[in-house]
């Protein structure tokens, strides 16, 4: 066989593999509805209940990504800064709660000692 015939067979085989392979995978892949129908009833119920919450969490995450991308810094650095800020706020809240509890204990102690 000539070189042209070999190249033609190679091009046809490559096209069949490159186009036919993904088409075959797409044809046998189940849709989301088919997968959902295969769930047992308990999982279907839980999936429906958690669906709205998960969608909201995803939307929040996408909005945070958009916010981070507006910064002139890398998204990862912006995310780290926001994490640090959240940690510091949480730490401040904890220390404030500790201080309030300490003040409350002191007041209770004074009250108990004052009654005796």
What does this structure look like?
The protein has 116 residues and is mainly alpha-helical. Among the domains are: 1-30; 78-115. 90% of the residues lie in helices and 0% in strands. The chain is built from four helices and no strands. It has helices at 3-28, 32-38, 41-70, 75-115. The longest helix is centred in the C-terminal third of the chain and has 41 residues, at 75-115. The radius of gyration is 31 Å and the shape is elongated. The termini are far apart. The mean pLDDT is 90. Keywords: Chaperone, Membrane, Mitochondrion, Mitochondrion inner membrane, Transmembrane, Transmembrane helix. This is Cytochrome b mRNA-processing protein 4. Its main location: mitochondrion. InterPro entries: Cbp4. Residues 86-116 are annotated as: Disordered.
List the helices and strands and how they pair.
Elements: H1 3-28, H2 32-38, H3 41-70, H4 75-115
């Amino acid at each position: 066989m000539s070189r042209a015939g070999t190249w033609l067979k190679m091009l046809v085989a490559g096209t069949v593999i490159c186009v036919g392979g993904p088409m075959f995978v797409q044809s046998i892949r189940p849709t989301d509805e088919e997968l959902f129908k295969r769930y047992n009833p308990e999982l279907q119920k839980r999936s429906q209940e958690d669906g709205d919450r998960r969608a909201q969490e995803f939307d929040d995450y996408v909005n945070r990504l958009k916010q981070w991308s507006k910064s002139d810094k890398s998204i990862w650095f912006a995310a780290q800064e926001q994490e640090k800020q959240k940690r510091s706020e949480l730490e401040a809240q904890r220390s404030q709660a500790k201080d309030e509890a300490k003040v409350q204990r002191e007041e209770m102690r004074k009250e108990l000692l004052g009654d005796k």
